[in-house]
Amino acid sequence: MKKVEELKVKIFADGADKTGMLEMYQKPFIKGLTTNPTLMKKAGITDYRAFCKDILRSINDKPLSFEVFSDDFLEMERQALEIASWGDNVYVKIPITNTKQDPCYELVKKLVNQKVKLNVTALMTLDQVRNVVAVLDPNTPSYVSVFAGRIADTGCDPVPLMTNAVEILKAAPAAELIWASPRELLNIYQADEIGCHVITVTNDILKKLSLVGYDLNEYSLDTVKMFYADAVAAGFKL
Fold first, then answer.
1. N or C: which end of the chain has fewer CB within 10 A?
2. Span 94-103, pLDDT tens digits
3. Alpha-carbon 95 to chain mean position
């Protein structure tokens, strides 16, 4: 099994906890970072602009994605232009639709024409991938985030879809495909196997990297010891 340093897929840390973000940023195998309004809300962040600018004082040499949070495309554009102005390493996350399911394609086209680096997010179908690729600027760096983990949550195997998405992205040379919302460490290796460019990974999954290549007999014994220790600690009796 490949070591993490040998993987071709780029690992981006996904989170909104400042301490955790800075910890991951220091790791050489972390090539970028992403966050979103949901993660920021869970982290207790109330001042969006202040949080983002604070993070950018420490992280300014790896790609960092921040998301717009309006449901109106004109306001999304205004927010996107402000967010993009915060740093050369900033990518602006644009949702594939608004809450009314109106697609974002015209907005994406307007923004890439202004050389805004985008991360088009929350995609789950190949039609969405094709439509986004059709409006990207072939010379402006961008990311296309397909939520493979959420696809898997529906009982569908995301690997065939992601494999096809890799092929579609070849029409946009400056764009990279992101395997988003992974559910387990194995997803990193699946993304690498199909040639996906990037995978976003939360800290709880990244912590499992120490298990890569671990002897399964030893892991089995560790599990038995855990069950035994917890039963003793709980004081169970029959």
1. C
2. 999 999 999 9
3. 13
Token pair recorded at residue 129: 């991938």
Distance, CA of 200 to CA of 179 (rounded, Å): 6
| CA pair distance 105, 128, nearest whole angstrom | 9
Instruction: Tell me the C-alpha distance between 144 and 137, whole Å.
Output: 13
Q: Letter for the amino acid at 53?
A: K
3-class DSSP state of 91:
strand
Predicted structure pTM score: 0.95
Helix or strand (DSSP H, E) at 201: strand 198-202
Q: Which CATH superfamily is domain 4-211 in?
A: Aldolase class I (3.20.20.70)
Q: Which amino acid is at 203?
A: N
Q: What is the three-class DSSP state of 37?
A: helix
Radius of gyration of the chain (CA): 20
pLDDT of residue 1: 80
Q: In angstroms, rounded to a whole number, what is the distance separating the alpha carbons of residues 132 and 104?
A: 8
Taking the C-alpha atoms of residue 59 and residue 63, their distance in angstroms, rounded to an integer, is 9
- Nearest residue to 69 via CA among 55, 87, 49: 49
Q: CA-CA distance, 198 to 179, in Å (whole number)?
A: 6
Percent of the chain at pLDDT > 70 equals: 100
Report yes or no: 157 and 135 within 8 Å, Cβ to Cβ.
no
Own/partner pairs for 26-30, CB < 8 Å, 24+ apart? 29/4, 29/5, 30/62
CB 27 within 8 Å of CB 217: no
